[in-house]
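Morning!

This is the sequence you dropped in the shared folder:
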Amino acid sequence: MLASQTQAGSTILVIDDSSTIRRSAEIFLSQAGYAVVLAEDGFEALAKIIDHQPALIFCDIQMPRLDGYQTCSLIRHSAQFHTTPVVMLSSKDGLFDRARGALVGANAYLTKPFTKDSLLKTVRELVRHSAAA
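The structure's back. Tokens below.
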């Protein structure tokens, strides 16, 4: 059964090679009532996107095999998921990283380590926006 695409109960995919980041995001999002799907890298994420149809995707930039920019670009080129909001996650807060994220179609950029409040604020803004679209 797929989660509703409304804000409460939406499925959120978190792609990060750090188990600490994945676990933190999972705890914060689960406590707020979201269904959470985790992936360690872009390849694993691409299969899970099809299976779970998330309402929002958090994607780490620096990952082995398929980095976040490549993963986001592949999502944007998918007919089914090209409008799914993608938030880039990075430990760097540089202008170049933000610009490159925007070039591949990211909707937002969140610097790690993130707080519960910043993570949930980003989710609320993007899930509400995509539900209204």
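Headline: The CA atoms of residues 61 and 67 lie 6 Å apart.

More detail when I'm at my desk.
O.
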